[in-house]
Design brief:
about 110 residues; mainly alpha; Glutathione S-transferase Yfyf (Class Pi), Chain A, domain 2; 5 helices; globular
């Protein structure tokens, strides 16, 4: 995620404190979403889930949790398998802790508050 999916990262900055129902993605961001979705579906199918590399939450899930956050914030429609993973990633205790900490953050960058 750090070096890839530039359109998604640029068009949909991570912001756990906001949600944009019905948000319209740019075509290149949609292409990034489809690629992520394919990667998630492949990992779930190959390793049997419920996490990307099998039964245990791990590094691949950690790497893609900020993506799940973007999908949540920008109301991205996903396949059933990818949506299930998004929900699991967002419900993970570490993500819940991260989102709770963000709620207490007093510094807001206006450029990320569309």
């Amino acid at each position: 995620m750090q070096a890839g999916f530039q359109a998604l990262r640029g068009f949909c900055p991570m912001n756990t404190r906001r949600q944009y129902p019905g948000f319209a993605l740019a075509a290149d961001a949609r292409a990034d979403v489809r690629r992520v979705e394919a990667l998630w579906e492949e990992g779930l199918a190959r390793f049997g889930g419920p996490w990307l590399a099998g039964p245990d939450w791990g590094a691949a899930d950690i790497m893609f949790t900020p993506v799940a956050s973007r999908f949540t914030t920008y109301d991205v429609a996903l396949s059933p398998a990818a949506e299930g993973l998004r929900q699991r990633l967002m419900a993970h205790p570490f993500m819940a802790e991260w989102c709770a900490a963000a709620e207490t953050e007093g510094h807001v960058l206006a450029r990320y508050e569309r």
